[in-house]
Here is the input.
Amino acid sequence: MLHDTIRKVTDRIIARSEGPRGDHLGRMRAAAAEGPARAHLSCSGQAHAYAAAGPDQDALATKSAGNLGIVTAYNDMLSAHQPFERFPDLIRTAARAAGGTAQVAGGVPAMCDGVTQGTPSMDLSLFSRDVIALAAGVALSHNVFDSTVYLGVCDKIVPGLIIAAQSFGHLPAVFLPAGPMTSGLPNDEKAKIRQQFAAGEVDRAALMNAEMGAYHGPGTCTFYGTANTNQMLMEFMGLHLPGASFVNPNTPLRDALTIAGAKRALEISHLGNAYTPVCDVLDEKAFVNGIVGLNATGGSTNLLIHLVAMARAGGIILDWQDFSDLADVTPLLARVYPNGLADVNHFHAAGGLGFMIGELLRGGLLHEDVRTVLGDGLDRYTCEPKLKDDTVSWEAGAGETLNDRILRPVSDPFQATGGLKRLAGTLGNAVTKISAVAEEHRFIEAPVRVFHTQEAVKAAYQAGAFEQDVVVVVRFQGPKANGMPELHSLTPVLANLQARGLKVALVTDGRMSGASGKVLSAIHVCPEAVDAGPIARLQDGDILRVDATNGKIEIVTEGVLDRAPVTADLSSNAFGVGRDMFANFRANVGSADTGASSL
Here is the structure.
């Protein structure tokens, strides 16, 4: 039996989205009715598209076999995307074996917040999602493809690719992950050394040695941040093959899953026997399933922005109250760093997403009656892939957790509710991730210290300015101000203050990333400071109450809202590392609670 709250939230999303969703599906049905698009191209147009296809030229020009469009985020500077170098050849070979063809339609940028953290380059990070969507749209605009496969992993890449896939929603879409790197230095040890460096207790050589020990090979970072949350979502929402998310790169099973995904993408094209356009996979139920997965795993706060934007691209309107209401009835079933000591490889070994999906289905917390790239029904995703004679087959997954310190059943969760919470009150709307925050740290009422940059916070810390309980407010960090960079580099500073016995919280109109950890953080504050939101009226010493348990964020000091909002000189945000080219994005971006989209 489906849980009543799951049903009610789904029903209100369907009702709220009726108009735009109907318009989107109408456009997709009309596009599908035109049949394979390349048939409508001129002979000259087709010749241009097939000229470099080598052994596939004849099949493209004279046969009606399906043609896969590959959109790839490959680069060899980022560990998560380096494995994609080999994927096009694997996909082309698989397509030929199935009687079809495959071409790389185009590439999209892949930006790593781990590289750009704490630098001006982070001001481009959120906007890169929309650039990725635009680039994928250009790649597919040649209209010579019957189905698509998307190669992407990290923070903004998968959301951007989903937005593009929705624009071409009449085409099937299979997402092929690269997998996480093998386990290195444990994440908690790395975090400890970061805190020691922030406190001046170890030198930079020790810090560098720890970082290289953690990030040591090809694949996605092994902590449960935005990149791995993306992979979870693709499985919960039916766009991966079952069990594909957390298989390590460059292994026989990883290659076999890539081959199987390419073959399946052809089978579900208009020319196959199981036509499954992505617009029919990504419906309201799929997004609810994704939000449940986000809560059950204690996933990244970034998805409270990205999922809203991803859904809107398909005419589905989500709001943060949907996330919060679903969190209230979704138990936390996983402890993966930063919510625990395990990494995603340990999580996968303990039973992984297959076990979790099975538990949530049995608990009535997921919609089973959905379409996926493998067929009807989410129950297929309780199975795990096995390699037999170089071919993937699926068998029943773990019926019980293999490590209850990492993964638990619905009957015995780590906590009764999910890891995310909407905050509302006189400061506006915000969100918080509490799955890694101890209960005694989920409430604070204390004076604020107001800053306009994270560098200023660090300088105040180094000067010994924090000697009492404090709410650190970092404003003018929203999408319109500077592109809403992550402020994750503040984590060691705030964690050190908390370790001293102070009550500490961060309040910001910026982001805190998928690595949000043990310090209470009220993020994505709307309206942002640039829009003269209440956060722009705060002064040092004002009392602010942040109550994550009850979902409140209140200004206790009287008269604050009667003040004129503070303004800031943001001219330094406009130039350097390409920021001058993004002026139109800053000028036209929407608020965080509507997806922070500039499209």
About this structure: The chain has a mean pLDDT of 94. DSSP finds 22 helices and 16 strands in the chain.
